[in-house]
Design goal:
This is Nascent polypeptide-associated complex subunit beta. By secondary structure, this protein is α+β, with helices and mostly antiparallel strands. About 45% of the residues lie in helices and about 15% in strands.
Length: about 160
Amino acid sequence: MPVDQEKLAKLQKLSAKNKVGGTRRKLTKKTGSTANANKDDTKLQAQLAKLNAITVDNVAEANFFKADGKVLHFNRVGVQMASQSNTSVFYGLPQEKNLQDLFPNIISQMGEESIQALTQLASQIQGSQKNGKEAAEEETEIKDDSIPELTEGQTFD
C-alpha cells in the first residue's frame, strides 16, 4: 500500500501539537518538619518548670572551653538555672571558634587553670620559635664546618 508523504507530514504536524496523556508532575521531597523540635522544646520547658528553673537575664555571651582547645561561643544566649538541682540550660546557636579568635575579650572569663594553660601554650610557642632559630643557626654552622678552607699551595692527598 503506497503512503502519501504529504498526508503523513500533515498528520505528524497535528500529532506533535496534540499530546496524549497529561504532564507528569514532579514529586517534591518532603523535608523534616519542625514539629518535633517544638515538641522537644515544650518537653524541656515542662521539665525545667518542674525543677523551678529561673531565667537569668542580661547574659551577653557564653563560652565553653573544649579539651581540644576550641571554644563553643554563644553570642546571643538565654540561660535558665535550677540551683537546687545543680542544672543550667543554655539556649542559642553555638559557633565553634579558636581561642585566638576570641583572645582579647575572653581573658576576663577564663579561670585560673585556663590562664595557666594559656601561659604554658605561649611559652611553648616562644620556645619552639627560639628552637627553630637555633636549629637554623646550627645548620649553617655545620655547613660552614664541612667546607674546608683552602690555603695557597696546599694539596689534598
